[in-house]
Specification:
Radius of gyration: 29 Å
Order of helices and strands: HHHEHEEEE
Strand order of the largest sheet: 1-5-4-3-2
Largest sheet: 5 strands, mixed
Number of strands: 5
Shape: globular
Number of helices: 4
Strand content: 15-25%
Low-confidence stretches: 1-33
Helix content: 40-55%
Mean pLDDT: 85
Distance between the termini: 104 Å
Oligomer: single chain
Length: about 200
C-alpha cells in the first residue's frame, strides 16, 4: 500500500493552519456584525466619586434655593420648589427613606415618608405641628466637608459635616451621613439621611 505523501503533508499543513484560519473567520464575522448592527448597549450602575460629590452639592444648592425663593417669592413658591427637590433628590419612590433630620424630636424624629420630609423643610403641615421649616431660615451657602466616602457598586455612603451660612453670616455646622443609590435612569437618590448637631462637652 502506498501513501500519498503529498496529500498527507497538505492535510497536516491544513490542520496546523486551522486555528489561525478560524480566528480570521471570526474576525471577519465580528467586523461584519459591527458594521451592520447597532452599537451594543452597556448598562453600568456603578457610582463614581464625582457623582457623589455632585449629588451632595446639588442638595446644598437646593437648600439655599428654597430659602432664597421663600424670601423673594413667599412660602407657596418655596413649598413648590421643595416638593420638586424631594422628588428629585430622595428615593421615596422606592418606599421608606431613612431620614433623620437635624431638628426633630419624638415621636416624629424620623421622616420615612415624603410628607414628613416636606413638613420638615417648609412646615405648615398640621400632622407635624413642631415643624417650622428648616429650609426657610434664610440660608445663603452650604459647604460639604466629607470625612469619608465609601462606594460599593451602585451604593455610596458619605459621612462628614455640612456648614450652612444664613443671611446674617452665621454658620451652623451639622454632622451628616448620606447613603445614595443609583436608580434605573442613572440618577443618585438619597435613601439614608442622618443629621445631627455636633456633640458639645
Amino acid at each position: 500500500m502506498q501513501i500519498n505523501l503529498s496529500v498527507t503533508a497538505a492535510t497536516i499543513a491544513l490542520l496546523a493552519a486551522a486555528p489561525s484560519m478560524a480566528k480570521a473567520q471570526v474576525n471577519n464575522i465580528i467586523i461584519g456584525q459591527t458594521s451592520s448592527t447597532p452599537k451594543t448597549s452597556v448598562v453600568n450602575m456603578t457610582i463614581t466619586e464625582s457623582e457623589v460629590l455632585a449629588a451632595q452639592k446639588a442638595w446644598g444648592d437646593a437648600l439655599v434655593a428654597i430659602s432664597t425663593t421663600h424670601d423673594e417669592k413667599g412660602k407657596a413658591a418655596a413649598k413648590a420648589l421643595a416638593e420638586k427637590v424631594i422628588d428629585q433628590a430622595y428615593g421615596y419612590q422606592f418606599g421608606a427613606v431613612l431620614f433623620k433630620p437635624t431638628l426633630t424630636k419624638r415621636p416624629q424624629t424620623f421622616r420615612t415618608t415624603r410628607e414628613g420630609a416636606l413638613a420638615y423643610f417648609v412646615g405648615g403641615d398640621p400632622s407635624f405641628p413642631n415643624d417650622t421649616g428648616f429650609a426657610l431660615k434664610g440660608w445663603r451657602k452650604a459647604e460639604i466637608r466629607n470625612a469619608g466616602v465609601f462606594i460599593v457598586g451602585n451604593v455610596a455612603t458619605t459621612m462628614g459635616n455640612v456648614l450652612i451660612t444664613d443671611n446674617n453670616g452665621k454658620v451652623t455646622t451639622v454632622d451628616k451621613t448620606w447613603k445614595f443609590v443609583k436608580d434605573k435612569n442613572g440618577k443618585l437618590r438619597i435613601v439614608v439621611h442622618h443629621s445631627s448637631l455636633p456633640h458639645k462637652n
